[in-house]
Amino acid sequence: TGYITIDEGFKNTGSTTSDITFLDGEEGILRYRGYSIEDLADKADFLEVAYLLIYGELPTAAEYDVFVAKITKHTMVNEDMRKIFDGFPVNAHPMGIMSALASAMSGFYPDSFDDKKPDNTELHIIRLLAKFPTLATWCYKKSQGHPINYPKNELDYCSNFLHMMFALPVENYKVDPKVSSALNKLLILHADHEQNCSTSTVRLVGSSKANIYSSISAGISALWGPLHGGANQEVIEMLEEIRNDGGDVQKYIDKAKDKNSGFRLFGFGHRVYKNFDPRAKIIKKAADDVLSLLGVNDPVLEIAKGLEEAALKDEYFVSRKLYPNVDFYSGIIYRALGIPTNMFTVMFAIGRLPGWIAQWLELRDQKQAIGRPRQIYTGPTIKDFVEKSKR
Ligand code: CMC
Questions:
Q1: Backbone phi, then psi, for 143, in 5-degree steps?
Q2: Fewest C-beta atoms under 10 Å: which of 103, 188, 242, 364?
Q3: Catalytic positions (predicted)?
Q4: Strand, helix or coil for residue 36
Q5: What is the pLDDT at residue 112?
Q6: Pairwise CA distance, residues 71 & 300, whole Å
Q7: Using CA atoms, how far apart are residues 196 and 89, in angstroms rounded to an integer?
Q8: Which helix (H) or strand (E) holds 306?
């Protein structure tokens, strides 16, 4: 009823009110529950930030300990999930596997999809946070032809992930605290970003009262796309290509400006940030710090800097307010931490999981109506049916 207005890509349509994340695109401000992203990335621990997003306030020391203990208890994954996982080909993309496994969890915890049963939502949330990194490391281990590692629960969240990724049975792998701390920062920077494509997907799916596992699985699928989280993989592939092509950044800038080329500068531009992406600022500095701390010399860092400098001088990018986004430098750090390119978007998903969960919970608490956009029909008017033999 009433007039329907089309807002393609929802550029000016708000889908909800929210108490979770504040974002000012003009000023480049990002805050979770009122706390600045700069402070959190510098001082907090990823699970503290997860708690903040999900429960609305930073945990006290006692609350934090209980939260961590609960997560630690659930890091193991049902061995039957392995059977599903084992059926994937060795070169399946980890994002496809993650989405499938997140959805498969609903089969293992069927009390997640019936509102009439006792409300075990908190337990499902803990399970998701706990098992997600474990599942992610399975994908990497499979790609290497290595046996999986079980979680080592005396380790913190990031270190446990790194242990499951990189420890081999034959060596005495020790997590480097510098690597763990860099990962902690990256996960915090990705933890929420208000109504982006994947979060809106989680909320839309959740609005039909689908269970939390299916809603998160849908979010993973949305994040996978190269215009969203998949951009972090595209950036490194693009930088590699530029390097192998002789390092001429201007050639790629010109290609990105040419609308017929079908090529965009990955890691550049943002729907909301029209000044700078505050996450990119922190990540750029972190890339310098982490690489020098670990003694890594990655030639693509220089290419990335050259590309950024040239783009920011170019009328095309300046007039459209296209700046580096969160995905531009993050891959360079992941790479320095030993994480392979096809796992970058999975790293984004591990970071974004608490945000998706918080937004799913908020949607439920707000008792929102099912999301059901309208359309303006532009197809043919009425047609008479013609028998197959007469068409
Ligand atoms: N390279 C070249 N031109 C671009 C780029 C780019 N990366 N981004 C936008 N433009 C141009 C676009 O062609 C358009 O030009 P015109 O006005 O002449 O038609 C103008 O800038 C506005 O772009 P838009 O596509 O209308 O903007 P949008 O808000 O719909 O899209 C975006 C935002 C992030 C999808 C887009 O900037 C893009 O495709 N960037 C590359 C992919 C990327 O880095 N994605 C990660 C986003 S940040 C975090 C995340 O979600 O993962």
A1: -65, -25
A2: 364
A3: 270, 327
A4: strand
A5: 82
A6: 37
A7: 31
A8: helix 299-313
How many Cα neighbours within 13 Å face the side chain of 107? 10
Output the pLDDT for position 115: 67
Residue 40, H or E segment: helix 37-43
pLDDT at 242: 96
Q: Which of 19, 270, 314, 384 is catalytic?
A: 270
| pTM, two decimal places | 0.95
232 lines ligand 1 (CB under 6 A): no
Q: Is the CB of 152 under 6 A from ligand 1?
A: no
* Residue among 95, 220, 227 to mutate when testing ligand 1 (max atoms within 8 A of CB): 227
Residue type at position 144: Q
From the number of C-beta atoms within 10 Å of its C-beta (0-12, 13-18, 19+), residue 371 rates as middle
Residue ranges, the chain, pLDDT below 50: none
Q: Of 323, 349, 214, which Cα lies nearest the Cα of 267?
A: 323
Q: Answer yes or no: are the C-beta atoms of 95 and 349 closer than 8 Å.
A: yes
Q: Residues 153, 158, 164, 169: what is their CA dihedral angle, to the nearest 10 degrees? A: -80
